[in-house]
Amino acid sequence: MARRRQIYEGKAKVLFEGPEPGTLVQYFKDDATAFNNKKKGTITGKGVLNNRISEFLMMRLGEMGIPTHFIRRLNMREQLIRQVEIIPVEVVVRNVAAGSLSQRLGLPEGSALPRSIVEYCYKNDDLDDPLVAEEHVTAFGWATPQELDEILSLALRINDYLSGLFYATGLRLIDYKLEFGRLWENDQMRIVLADEISPDSCRLWDVKTNEKLDKDRFRRDLGSVEEAYQEVARRLGILPESGPTDAPGTETLQ
Question: Is residue 70 part of a domain?
Answer without folding.
Answer: yes
